[in-house]
Specification:
The chain is α+β, with helices and mostly antiparallel strands. It has 5 helices and 8 strands, in the order ααβββββααβαββ. α5 links the parallel β6 and β7.
């Protein structure tokens, strides 16, 4: 047993492993610098990315102390070397931009789980599009969504929600979590939040 306050000498094997780790870090750093990846991240510096609040009249207004969405500015994409935004979209309820709560609609196409799911996704797309300048091309599309979380008050509605969700996203399949919950605001049966990159 080594007495307290006395540090044992490292074995030759430990020293060799430490040297190998140090060399691997140096080589990785050299690779980043030679490929230009390091310089892209250096442009960002150590500052926290700036954020901007997203608002659009094409989605329902917020009903509390939160935003429709928030976006980071100037996030670097290694794939194309361009600056992109990560857009965080608050949970969207099945409410039209003019405030109609679809679950109370007399139109069965709107009040169905499928109709309400579609409205949630339409709201997500409207907020995602609002995160880019009005005349920017290309416009944000549903394929810019990279993750969603779906909240359902009754998992018996999963299949109907899933079919409408798949139709709205087409062949695009962002990462997704579906969570069964006891209750959602205003008694709605479904709510969807999302993250996108534009």
């Amino acid at each position: 047993m080594v007495p307290a306050g006395v540090f044992p000498l490292r074995s030759p094997e430990t020293l060799a492993a430490d040297r190998a780790r140090h060399q691997a870090k140096k080589e990785a750093k050299a690779h980043r610098e030679s490929s230009g990846i390091g310089s892209m991240f250096n442009k960002m510096g150590s500052q926290k990315p700036k954020t901007e609040r997203i608002y659009t009249d094409n989605a329902p207004p917020v009903a509390g102390p939160y935003s429709q969405g928030m976006a980071t500015k100037g996030v670097i994409s290694i794939a194309d070397g361009l600056a992109h935004k990560i857009v965080y979209i608050s949970g969207q309820m099945p409410v039209s931009y003019d405030g109609e709560l679809l679950m109370n609609s007399t139109d069965p196409a709107k009040s169905s789980i499928a109709g309400q799911t579609t409205q949630c996704i339409n709201n997500i797309l409207a907020i995602l599009r609002a995160s880019k300048p009005e005349n920017a091309e290309p416009k944000a599309e549903i394929t810019d969504v990279i993750r969603t979380t779906v909240y359902l008050t009754d998992m018996k509605n999963f299949n109907e929600m899933n079919e409408a969700y798949a139709k709205a996203f087409g062949g695009h399949k962002p990462a997704r979590t579906t969570i069964g919950v006891k209750e959602l605001p205003k008694g709605i049966p479904v709510e969807i939040e999302a993250i996108g990159i534009v």
